[in-house]
Write a structure and sequence with these properties.
The chain is mainly α. Helices cover 76% and strands 0% of the residues.
């Protein structure tokens, strides 16, 4: 396995280099001249030239690319163009609030969707199965904006169970007070599509021969569901869950914006609105690297779930 991991890590190098080149040339050719963006409309050529010198964009492309690579390796992307704050400090301070919301959300939606999918898949065609599928379809048809606005109005404004918005410097307060309603609303939005998807994975397994054999041997039904069926349906489920994990690093844009959570998603929106290229470039590269890492982790989990899978 160590040989496989080393080979995959080695294969990540050219992929990451391709991402770096793509990001670099897109921001340099398509993004326009940042000196004009920073100087504003009331600038003169001398001011623009000074800004270009300060940013290093008056250097040849190969020098700028080398500077960009050093920034990635050293985790030092300089300062934000709009706030002057170090980009590394921005990412460090914004990642915590995003993970406070998204990690519990990912765990809850995965466990709930798997449990419900297992329950209704074994009752395919029954009233409960049809009712849950209809509820999922209705739930998926409603925009997340409706969930957010109605949730804030009912649970926070009318009932007063949660604060409408806010964030503090204390983790426990944030998790159980300020993040509770965003997690609840995001859970209502995300559980329906996951439930439908996981149900389809499980339905592919419930009529297999090994299920009938297990029942014929007198294996308890709960064991058939949670061990035999779930284990064989786990690979596509794990693939789906792991493919969503890199999204933890870019936050939940709308949730963070509406609930004033100072997370990565809200910062990305602000960076795009302000054309803050250093922040956007840093997040883009690190999310790409995280995606490759989680893909490797997914492959390793495949073998842990099914020893018949060989890593080559």
């Amino acid at each position: 396995m160590s040989t496989y991991i080393l080979r995959r890590l080695w294969q990540m190098a050219p992929t990451l280099l391709g991402v770096i080149l793509l990001v670099f040339f897109l921001f340099n050719w398509v993004g326009g001249d940042p000196a004009y963006l920073l100087a504003g409309k009331m600038s003169n050529p001398e001011q623009i030239a000074n800004i270009r010198t300060q940013l290093g964009i008056d250097q040849p492309y190969y020098v700028q690319l080398w500077i960009f690579i050093k920034q990635i390796v050293t985790f030092d992307f300089g300062n934000s163009w709009s706030t002057g704050e170090a980009v590394s400090a921005i990412l460090k301070s914004r990642l915590g609030p995003s993970l406070t919301v998204l990690v519990p959300l990912t765990l809850l939606e995965s466990v709930l969707a798997i449990a419900l999918a297992l329950s209704i898949a074994f009752r395919r065609g029954s009233f409960s199965d049809r009712a849950v599928m209809i509820a999922c379809t209705i739930g998926m048809s409603v925009s997340i904006l409706v969930y957010i606005i109605v949730g804030q109005y009912v649970f926070a404004f009318q009932l007063g169970w949660f604060p409408v918005q806010g964030w503090s410097n204390h983790f426990v307060t944030n998790l159980f007070k300020y993040a509770a309603l965003p997690i609840l609303i995001a859970l209502m939005v995300s559980v329906a599509p996951n439930l439908r998807l996981f149900r389809s994975f499980i339905l592919d397994e419930v009529n297999q021969d090994y299920v009938r054999t297990a029942r014929a041997k007198g294996v308890p039904e709960w064991r058939v569901k949670w061990l035999h069926v779930l284990r064989n349906a786990a690979i596509p489920i794990v693939t789906h869950i792991m493919s969503n994990l890199p999204a933890l690093l870019i936050g939940a844009f709308l949730i963070e914006r509406f609930f004033s959570i100072p997370g990565i998603g809200r910062e990305v929106i602000l960076a795009v609105e302000r054309s803050d290229f250093p922040v956007i470039k840093a997040i883009t590269v690190y999310v790409a690297a995280a995606t490759m890492f989680f893909n490797l982790l997914t492959d390793l989990l495949y073998q842990a779930l099914d020893p018949r899978i060989q890593l080559k």
